Amino acid sequence: MPETANDLKALTRRWFEEVWNKGNTALIDRCCARCAAHGLGQPSPDLRRPLPSFRPFYDQFRRAFPDLKIEVQDILADGDQTATRFYAFTATHNGDFQD
């Protein structure tokens, strides 16, 4: 686990760059085994998703938006949590997503 706010910010930045922008799925299991993601998902948009239920969401999202690019503007850290603000999110919609 990250030890400082800067470590946590670096991990978060790596998450978006490696997992989302580059499609590095190995990082999901390696670095985020104890993490939960807040955000989009079923059955509700504010669901706290443990890692096992994140992977199907991620796979479906990447199939629908294969050229996804997220440009992170800011990462704020407080305790063991981060919040990320995006500068831009670009992608080509190529398939079904959350039907």
Describe the model.
This protein has 3 helices and 4 strands, in the order ααββαββ. The protein has one domain (5-90): Roll (Nuclear Transport Factor 2, Chain: A), CATH 3.10.450. The protein has helices spanning 5-21, 26-31, 51-64; strands at 36-39, 47-50, 69-78, 81-90. The radius of gyration is 13 Å and the shape is globular. The protein has 99 residues and is of the alpha+beta class. The strands form 2 sheets. A two-stranded antiparallel ribbon has the order 1-2. The protein has a two-stranded antiparallel sheet with strand order 3-4. It is 37% helix and 28% strand.
CATH architecture heading: Roll
Biggest sheet strand line-up: 1-2
Secondary-structure-based class equals: alpha+beta
Q: What helical percentage do the residues reach?
A: 25-40%
Low-confidence stretches: none
Care to give the gist of this entry?
This protein is of the alpha+beta class. It has helices at residues 5-21, 26-31, 51-64; strands at residues 36-39, 47-50, 69-78, 81-90.
Salient structural properties:
28% strand, alpha+beta, 3 helices, Nuclear Transport Factor 2, Chain: A, two-stranded antiparallel sheet, 99 residues
What's the helix and strand layout?
Elements: H1 5-21, H2 26-31, E1 36-39, E2 47-50, H3 51-64, E3 69-78, E4 81-90
Antiparallel strand pairs: 1-2, 3-4
